[in-house]
Amino acid sequence: MSLIQYVRENVIQQLYYNYSRSYVHIQKVVQFLPKNIVLDHFAIIDLPSEKSGIFVLNQLFSSLEYIPQGRDYLQNKQNEFMWLAPMDANLKKPIDVSPQVVIADFCLDDLSSEVRDIVIKYTQSLSPLPWREFHRLVGKTYHDDSSAANNLIKMIITYCQRRDTLPTIHDYEMVKEQNELLAWVLAFGRGINHFGFNVGLLKCYSNLSDFNKSLNEKLQLSLNQKNGMIKGNEIYQIAQSSTLGEEITLPLLDGEIKLLSPFVEFIWRAKKHDNPVYWNDYFTGFIGEQADDVIESVYETPKN
Fold first, then answer.
1. β-bridge mates for residue 250, sequence order
2. How far is CA 262 from CA 97, 119, 219, in A?
3. How many CA atoms does the CB half-sphere of 140 hold within 13 Å?
4. By the 8 A CB rule, do 241 and 229 touch?
5. Which long-range contacts (CB under 8 A, 24 or more apart) does 115-122 make?
6. What does pLDDT average to in each consecutive run of 10 residues of the chain (304 residues)?
């Protein structure tokens, strides 16, 4: 393992460690899942600006040898997202591949002027990534400087888990009236929206429906019912289901609000042929229409 791969694995491990212990329902799911479960992907949704969003996150994960795999747009949420995979993924078995990264933000031009002004107001006060130091640490890491590698890990983790600007309740509610996902990000801050687990690689379940049934019998958690419990079909490309986030209280600039926490997603990816061995022997992409439904796991009342 190269030192930059060491950084990548440690960043993922720390993000997952913090996520897996953050909320009660996530802890229950993690304890329920087999130890050999494969992390399929994780998602970070951010506000759009010169100091945040897809532009910045793409550079962070590209430095860790991730490369873009695709891009899509959720029109009714004004949400743009792209996904990246490790550059060596095609050479490995799925169990040995680091999870894909889904990074997302919002298209300012498609927002109303009122909402756009609110987003700009709060992104102006965001702390920028220290680019000069970042590039110095990346360069030294590629030249086997372990001290630089550990500092790079800290920098990326800090950036990916930041809540350094708090909106007023009025601004939050104004945004929520038009775009609940954007309001969630405005309040929650930059961070993990969800981790997805590849249930299809487990030999103890024949399909995603069987997994969901077992999960419900053991944990009795609320699952996202938008357009059905299962979005898609495991026979055709990809099937997905997810928990609903749990209610949490967050402080804003002038009071507290209730909203739903990050959630857990379950994935079943179709085989491209009868005897898959490597990562790309399975469907590895994402489908916007299904992602549109899954992401409403953070909505207070998922829209049917």
1. 257
2. 24, 21, 17
3. 15
4. yes
5. 115/174, 115/175, 115/178, 115/179, 115/182, 118/167, 118/171, 118/174, 118/175, 118/186, 119/47, 119/48, 119/49, 119/175, 119/182, 119/186, 120/49, 121/171, 122/47, 122/165, 122/167, 122/171, 122/186
6. 95 97 94 95 97 96 97 97 96 96 97 97 93 98 97 97 92 97 97 97 94 94 93 91 96 96 97 94 96 95 54
pLDDT at 234: 81
Q: What is the 3-state secondary structure (H, E, C) of the chain?
A: CCHHHHHHHHHHHHHHHHHHCCCHHHHHHHHHCCCCCEEEEEEEECCCECCECHHHHHHHHHCCCEEEEEEEEEHHHCEEEEEEEECCHHHCCHHHCCCEEEEEEECHHHCCHHHHHHHHHHHCCCCCCCHHHHHHHHHHHHCCCHHHHHHHHHHHHHHHCECCCCCCHHHHHHHHHHCHHHHHHHHHCEEEEEEEEEHHHCCCCCCHHHHHHHHHHHHCCCECCCCCCCEEECCEEEEEEEECCCEEEEEECCEEEEEECCEEEEEEECECCCCCCCHHHECCCCCHHHHHHHHHHHCCCCCC
Please state which CATH class domain 3-298 belongs to. alpha beta
Predicted pLDDT at 304: 47
Q: At what angle do helices 146-160 and 54-62 cross, to 10 degrees?
A: 160
So where are the chain's domains?
3-298
Give the model's pLDDT for residue 27.
Answer: 96
Residue 236 has what pLDDT? Answer: 83
Q: What is the structure's pLDDT at 302?
A: 52
